[in-house]
Design brief:
Layout lengths: L2 H46 L1 H11 L4 H23 L4 H24 L18 H23 L1
Helix pairs in contact: 1-2, 1-3, 1-5, 2-3, 3-4, 4-5
Length: 157
């Protein structure tokens, strides 16, 4: 390889690295806002439609009613708070990890309930209650991947 070819290869690598960096610089803020809005909206609807949300939690059959009531009161505010923190990008790696953990727990519990034959409603956006479908798992998968991407990008910086 002569000097010109080597320099050309280095230039291509540098351009590729710059392109990835620019993509990340634009994608991460967009993902933070998108994930944040999803959690603020979900938490807000759970506050407004608290009894529907509690009924949805009860349908999963995993927790006693005393804990369901406490979780039903606390979880929406946790979601709203974490969603707002994500939107303003405060402690992004911690918040992205916490939201990914919540999503993994929600998705896992839902999958177990379905495998056990329980007819469960999502409870994600009360007021528009819907039985769990593949769309639920797809949406949660996208949100989980978004949180992991945000987390990985935050750790690189």
């Amino acid at each position: 390889m002569n000097r010109t070819e080597g320099q050309s290869a280095r230039n291509r690598i540098a351009r590729r690295h710059l392109w990835k960096q620019q993509l990340t610089n634009h994608l991460v803020p967009l993902l933070c806002v998108t994930v944040g809005i999803a959690f603020v909206a979900s938490g807000s609807l759970k506050v407004i439609y608290w009894s529907q949300f509690s009924d949805a939690l009860m349908s999963y059959g995993f927790l006693p009613s005393l804990i369901i009531n406490a979780a039903g009161l606390a979880l929406p505010w946790i979601e709203i708070t974490l969603g707002l923190m994500m939107m303003v990008r405060w402690r992004v790696s911690i918040i992205a990890g916490a939201l990914a953990t919540l999503l993994l727990i929600f998705t896992g519990v839902t999958a177990i309930a379905i495998l056990q034959g329980r007819p469960v409603e999502c409870g994600c956006f009360p007021g528009a209650m819907e039985p769990v479908s593949w769309g639920y798992f797809f949406r949660n998968g996208l949100l989980i991947l978004s949180c992991f991407y945000i987390l990985a990008s935050a750790r690189k910086q």
